[in-house]
Design brief:
The protein has a seven-stranded parallel sheet, sandwiched between helices. The model has no long low-confidence stretch (mean pLDDT 93). It has 375 residues and is of the alpha/beta class. The protein has two domains: 206 residues, 3-Layer(aba) Sandwich (Rossmann fold); 153 residues, 3-Layer(aba) Sandwich (Rossmann fold), CATH 3.40.50.2000. Helix content is 43%, strand content 15%. α9 packs across α12.
Amino acid sequence: MRALPLNLFMTADAVGGVFTYALDLARALAALQVRTTLAVLGPPMSQRQREAAAATPGLSVLWPDLPLDWLAPSAHSIVSTAERLADLARGAGADIVQLNGPSLAIADYPAPVVGVAHSCLASWWADVKGGPIPADFVWRTRLLREGIARTDALVCPSRAYARAVRRLYGARPLVVHNGREAPPARSEAGATDVPLFAFTAGRLWDEGKNVATLDTAAPDMALPLLLAGPAEGPHGERFAPRHAVALGSLDADAIRDRLARRPVFASAALYEPFGLSALEAAQAGCPLVLADIPTFRELWEGAALFVPPRDAKGFAQAVNRLGASAELCQRLGAAAAQRARVYNLDALACAMANLYRALVIRVGRQRAGLGGAAA
């Protein structure tokens, strides 16, 4: 694929992991002659996020004060947001548009549109709650289906999640695994032969993360369990641990400091389209204890211990098994680090840049053909 320079217009939000994904991708794309304009939806960025964005080469950031698709109060507000984003993309001279919420594709954009489905309410409900989805989810799911139908390409971060998207929306997504740049090598001074604590990170308030199971397991763990992440959600959701130690929301450096000590990293997630926290732990060489769900099996089979997601005693036993065996910790930590090299940022950026360029060329030829036919 020829390396023509491109202007990318991309959406993100400052609430969850998509912001990290977007900054990482923009930084790696800059080396591939792709400049990015990032429209941040929802609440404004924190000071740390603004600083991280300012330090990202080739990136321009807009905060148009528009609602997130999954927090928007009505279908009309999502349509209005999509139309405003299309205008912003036009003003930015976009050659390609990446919407990290594909429902926002329900507008006439000036360039080919790549939708990246990081998660969706219908699949979350199926994995976490089960049964008919609530009315508030019905119209959002309908808009997502309409948006997916209007994308020029749809991307999912794992085969497991792509299967769910095919089942729910009739789409045929491409699979491009997420990636993160490995942290710089750190001194071994903080690492020990056996872990001193167990650790998890993420949106503690999100039922899909199922932190409650880990908290229930904590009294039976021989190691203290530390939780990092926000405990309150945007709709009033709240998680208050009874047994584990809540550290609050930590910045990237603070999380890396914890992971550098190579704790047992545990995730009991019921729903996880990819799982950046597990990847970060694996990059640090932490032994992984993960919920036995399709995504984690796909990504970490042979490099983790697996436990049924609601089995609190199983998680405690797995953590204790690792806490008692330096050899098992070393072996699983090394296996996780080796597997993590597959999910690297360069691979993500190259795959996305190649997709952008293929779409620009294909859509350009189609439009030229239509112009010729009209003449």
